[in-house]
Design brief:
208 residues; 5-stranded mixed sheet
């Protein structure tokens, strides 16, 4: 075959390997933690629909990489798997469908109606809450304008306790500014995947 056809098929093959690897990482997390998540295959397929380059762009945005594209070798697949399963939890709690984009923002839709949109970010297993918040503020310009703008950030892989002034409340999911969140620039509020696992009703607020 010609070079262009060869490169196209090779890219598709590499993309399929990346998709399979991500799905296996999701399945391993579910089994190891004893979770009852839905089968992640459909989520992985939808993410892979961005294409090889698009997936690399999303990978960079979700991990707050300063480069416009992050190759697979630079990013631990578990970081993406944990976040993707978190998106799945939001889908299940809100009966919405997640639409992925290369800018890293996830739109939540139901019956072709946009319920809301969320940004997504990994602390890469080492960042603390305030460091992650600062990094998010620097990356807001990378998100394309959309309506509605994201008000929440789904996060995972963050080390250490939350600052004491934003400790989760005892009986309120989200509603007060200081509850269960850190305020980022432009009104962004950080919600961890573990928060949603513990209290699925938080997802409803994120999609409102």
């Amino acid at each position: 075959m010609g070079w262009c056809d060869f490169a196209k098929e090779l890219g598709a093959r590499v993309l399929e390997e990346h998709r399979n690897e991500l799905e296996q990482a999701c399945q391993t997390l579910i089994a190891t933690e004893g979770w009852t998540d839905d089968d992640p295959a459909d989520l992985c397929t939808r993410l892979g629909a961005l294409g090889l380059v698009g997936l690399g762009q999303l990978r960079a945005r979700w991990t707050l990489d300063p480069a416009p594209y992050a190759p697979r070798r630079a990013i631990a697949v578990d970081w993406l798997a944990d976040l993707l399963l978190g998106v799945g939890l939001i889908e299940r709690a809100t009966s919405a469908r997640a639409i992925f984009d290369v800018d890293g923002v996830v739109e939540l839709r139901r019956d072709d109606r946009v319920l809301g949109s969320i940004a997504v970010a990994s602390g890469r297993g080492t960042k603390r809450w305030l460091t992650l918040e600062a990094d998010l503020n620097q990356h807001t310009y990378r998100r394309r304008h959309r309506e509605p703008e994201p008000r929440f950030v789904l996060v995972s892989g963050v080390q250490g306790p939350r600052p004491s002034d934003v400790a989760p409340p005892g009986d309120v999911a989200i509603g007060e500014e200081e509850a269960n969140i850190i305020n980022g620039g432009r009104g962004l509020r950080l919600v961890s995947v573990d928060d949603i696992r513990a209290r699925p009703e938080i997802a409803e607020e994120m999609a409102a």
